[in-house]
Amino acid sequence: MAARKKAKKAAKRAKRRVVRAKRRVVKAKRKVTRKGASARKTVRKVARKAARAARKTVKTAKRKAQGAIKTTAKTVREATRTVEKVATQAVGTAAQKVEQATTAVETTLAGSPPAPAATPAQAA
Fold this sequence. Notes:
Shape: rod-shaped
Number of helices: 2
């Protein structure tokens, strides 16, 4: 009877050792899996951060470029306006001189003394 009891105890001890060993293996695997998961999480986090920073940089660059384009366009518009004003004035002055010369020639041909030419403001 004692022999059976001893054998039973020995078997239990052996079984316990096997179970413990298996538990240790499972625990180690879990640890490794957890570390891998945390590493993946960290990598994802860093990638997201980098993407966010890149988006910010792109937005800023885009904003600056649009501002520069608008400023350039504004300058060009102003210059165009100024040129148009000058051209209009030049054409108006030339037309006025031609009108005065025509009036002077007509009065000379008619033989009468030249009358003072009416300015466009008075004629209107």
